[in-house]
Amino acid sequence: MISYNKIEKTFTLKTKQKLPITLSKSWDFFSSPKNLSKITPSHMNFNILTDFGKMYEGQIIKYRVSPFPFFRVGWTTKITSVEKPFSFTDKQISGPFSLWEHDHIFEETSNGIYAHDVVKYKLPLGFLGRLFGGKIIMWQLNKIFEFRKKILNKLFVK
Description:
By secondary structure, the chain is an alpha+beta fold. It has a single domain (2-155), classed as Alpha-D-Glucose-1,6-Bisphosphate, Chain A, domain 4, CATH 3.30.530. Helix content is 24%, strand content 43%. An eight-stranded antiparallel β-sheet has the order 1-2-8-7-6-5-4-3, with helices on one face. A hairpin with a 2-residue loop joins strand 4 (60-68) and strand 5 (71-83). The protein is globular and about 45 Å long. It starts with a strand and ends with a helix.
């Protein structure tokens, strides 16, 4: 679900998915940047350019991605908070958005483990960006997270 804040001129995407794995396994998978390519649609040509080990606060990760056919862009994010095994946040330093903040939250309940994604983003070019790109980006992000949900269900099926 994506909502729009008229005052801040930002969009917020929220997803929630039950995972049939432990909190520890959930953390191990999502906190490894190399797994991001496994849950990103192949048509986006997602490549991580940074060599890394374990995720840590302050970590810089560089990517190349094709958000649209024949359009390739660099994207750099920084891990701004880590609360193992419950959450971490990455923020765009440079890339296609005016603002991108992605909270990854892992919740352990009596019904199982839930992964929550909260992405707050702002499109470039102000009014023109929102007018021409708002619905397209909403559609694309929804498709990416639907793909992610499908792949995670396949990866973690018991």
